[in-house]
Amino acid sequence: MALNKEDFLLDVWAFDDNGKKLPPYKGERGAKKGLFSVNFTNDTNKFQGLTEEQLIKSIEVGKFKSRGTIRMLPLDYKHGCDRNAFGPTFYKGKHIKEFG
Hints:
The protein is mainly β. It is 9% helix and 22% strand. The chain contains one helix and eight strands, in the order ββββαββββ. The protein has a four-stranded antiparallel β-sheet, with no helix packed on it. It has a four-stranded antiparallel β-sheet with strand order 4-3-5-6. A hairpin with an 8-residue loop joins strand 3 and strand 4. It is globular, with a radius of gyration of 13 Å.
């Protein structure tokens, strides 16, 4: 199933190595369906599902200041592309490290 623009959180983004803008996206299936996949540890098996409200609150209290990644994709992603996790860089145009 393809993601729609409504499945992305456009107020949060990072950039890949090629400078492409990447917003977080909601999971499409499994336990994290409809949630954003977030990890606050170095263990890649410790992703948890957060609602949009929970994710934004995590940003606002500074949980991403030193560590944390979110699964992100470009809006024009192609089916089958890698679904990597990135540390968020901006929230509403403000640098993530400024929060908290």
